[in-house]
Design a protein that fits this description.
Strand order of the largest sheet: 3-4-2-1-5-6-8-7-9
Oligomer: single chain
Strand content: 15-25%
Largest sheet: 9 strands, mixed
CATH architecture of the largest domain: 3-Layer(aba) Sandwich
Order of helices and strands: HHEHEHEEHEHEHHHHEEHEHEHHEE
Bound molecules: S-adenosylmethionine
Number of domains: 2
Number of strands: 12
Length: 392
């Protein structure tokens, strides 16, 4: 992103940035609940590592305000519902630019009506299970200190949203993945600029920057990309090459989400985790935002027929075929079927019961029994059930 674009970045929230923030918000809402209710510690942290100013000049919420509002909502929900019980949510905001940092601090203070101390965990007086930390630091410096001083961390979601790619250091990203088992990353991979950069001719400075940012396979990917004229093929290679580096660092699952503007991929949001639940939930969030399992968001709606799966009905139909192909003539526990769908590259397990119901309605499931032999209502698939698939 050019200097002028960076200087004017916070004037107005553009639709492509809005799509990125919608995905962050959608996932953070689900993730906070899943992690704090599903783990023993009942704690989690979200680190917004390129936090910005909090608000855009047009009044739109930036990532820090979105995250704070959602944590406050969750706390308020927990006060009304005794089944929702968590211990702590930490929200940390890292911002390098002094002016932006001070704006951010003041914007958050106005939102929560409380003064905040820098570099300290500030409990929100009105919502004491939520703590905010503000740091005026550089991403690489912050992560290097974190890696040096903290051996293991509570479940953490890190949002990495730089202006460009040059400030991102692959060694730091890969060290986070290697060192922390419970840290998920959402990276704004500035595809438009990265693609341009890949097509530049070689120079020592170029090789140095690309190596630092992209990771070990950059020379191989660059050679492949240089020969390709098809922009879709180029995109696939650049994104998959980077995901390969993340996976080699130890990330078990990754997903990517294209944000297109005027027919070109503007940015690509890369998600990486070692946790199958996180992977499953992110598939759901991506679908919620773009309504297709290609995970492509278009700032002006394309023809829906572009995508094979572009509605929940299509997704259930596709899962129906997938499950029958996988399990026909077999007797399988529900839990195994769910696990298999959780690993599906783009369909979330949320729809597994609907697909099973359709299979039963159409006679492709011939019997369902609960393991404790208690009775079961037709069309329901309890967690302790065993399912017989027919032959055809
Ligand atoms: C794209 S903006 C972030 C927007 C914000 N995430 C949002 O959605 O509201 C990038 C921000 O990162 C800050 N920044 C730039 N280089 C940085 C670095 N090395 N470490 C931390 N912050 C940095 C910039 O000052 C800018 O405020």
């Amino acid at each position: 992103m050019g200097k002028k674009e960076q200087d004017n970045f916070f004037d107005e929230l553009y639709e492509h940035s809005q799509a990125k923030l919608s995905l962050l918000k959608n996932y953070a809402i689900k993730w906070m609940r899943k992690v704090t209710l599903g783990t023993f510690q009942k704690r989690c942290a979200i680190i917004d590592t390129f936090a910005g100013t909090g608000f855009y000049e047009d009044g739109s919420d930036g990532s820090p305000i979105i995250l704070i509002r959602e944590a406050l909502n969750y706390y308020e929900q927990s006060q009304k519902n005794p089944n929702i019980n968590f211990n702590k949510i930490i929200l940390a905001f890292i911002e390098k630019d002094k002016t932006n940092f001070l704006k951010l601090k003041s914007n958050i203070e106005k939102l929560i009506h409380q003064e905040l101390k820098i570099d300290e965990f500030n409990k929100i007086n009105t919502h004491p299970k939520i703590e905010i930390m503000l740091t005026n630091d550089d991403f690489n410096n912050f992560t290097e200190n974190l890696l040096k001083n903290v051996n293991s961390i509570i479940p953490t979601l890190m949002f990495i949203d730089p202006f460009g790619y040059k400030v991102l250091n692959y060694d730091n990203i890969s060290s986070i993945i290697k060192q922390y088992d419970h840290c998920e990353l959402i990276i704004n991979f500035m595809y438009e600029e990265i693609n341009r950069f890949f097509l530049k001719s070689d120079s020592p400075a170029f090789i140095h920057t690309l190596n630092d940012f992209y990771g070990p396979n950059f020379e191989r990917i660059k050679e492949i990309v240089y020969e390709l004229n098809d922009k879709e093929e180029r995109r696939k290679n650049i994104i998959n090459g980077y995901k390969e580096n993340l996976e080699n660092a130890g990330a078990t699952f990754s997903l990517d989400f294209d944000i297109e503007k005027q027919g070109k991929v503007k940015m690509n949001i890369i998600f990486t985790t070692k946790n199958i639940n996180g992977f499953d939930v992110m598939k759901e969030s991506m679908f919620d935002i773009c309504n297709n399992t290609d995970f492509e968001y278009h700032t002006s709606s394309p023809q829906l027929s572009l995508f094979e799966i572009n509605s929940v009905e299509e997704m259930i139909k596709s899962l129906y075929v997938y499950l029958f192909d996988m399990f026909k003539s077999q007797k399988v526990r529900f839990f195994e079927i769910k696990k298999c769908v959780m690993c599906h590259p783009c369909i979330p397990s949320k729809y597994v019961k609907k697909a099973l119901k359709k299979l039963e309605d159409e006679g492709k499931i011939i019997n369902v029994e609960k393991l404790d032999k208690s009775s079961r209502r037709k069309g329901t698939f309890p967690d302790n059930s065993i399912i017989w698939f027919g032959e055809k």
